[in-house]
Design goal:
With 124 residues, this protein is mainly alpha-helical. The chain has one domain (2-123). The chain has 5 helices and no strands. α1 (2-22) packs antiparallel against α3 (41-78), α1 runs parallel beside α4 and α3 packs antiparallel against α4 (87-114). The longest helix is centred in the middle third of the chain and has 38 residues, at 41-78.
């Protein structure tokens, strides 16, 4: 079950990084507008970190649900064993999801926040 959980979480992080790359220009423009309106770089970065941490909690929850469902199916249907719920999967899922997605998402978009707003706004 733990391997299924890890694989699900890694797949989710891969999708997240692809989504970050796809929305890079939009995030750059949003950051430029916020900084032009007076938000400091630190505040914008904290908002980005909060966004990705929340997404990580959701990803961790989905990974834990997927791992639990797969474990239940395999134990009861394939191997004819009694299934016991492991709360560690849920705890690790939430914490690992929040940390991994929060940190990787924030690091991946840090260059967007550090980009000078005037250059972004001039390009349109």
């Amino acid at each position: 079950v733990q391997y299924v959980f890890g694989f699900t979480l890694l797949a989710g992080i891969t999708v997240l990084l692809a989504a970050i790359q796809a929305t890079r220009d939009e995030r750059r423009y949003e950051s430029a507008m916020l900084r032009t309106l007076g938000a400091r770089r630190r505040i914008v970065l904290q908002g980005v970190a909060a966004e990705f941490t929340t997404l990580g909690l959701l990803a961790g929850t989905l990974a834990a649900v997927g791992a639990t469902a797969a474990g239940y199916f395999l134990a009861t249907r394939v191997f004819n064993l009694a299934y016991t719920l492991d709360p560690t999967v849920w705890g690790v899922g939430l914490v690992a999801g929040a940390l991994l997605v929060g940190v990787s998402g924030t690091l991946a978009t840090r260059s967007v926040v550090n980009h000078p707003p005037i250059e972004t706004l001039r390009r349109g």
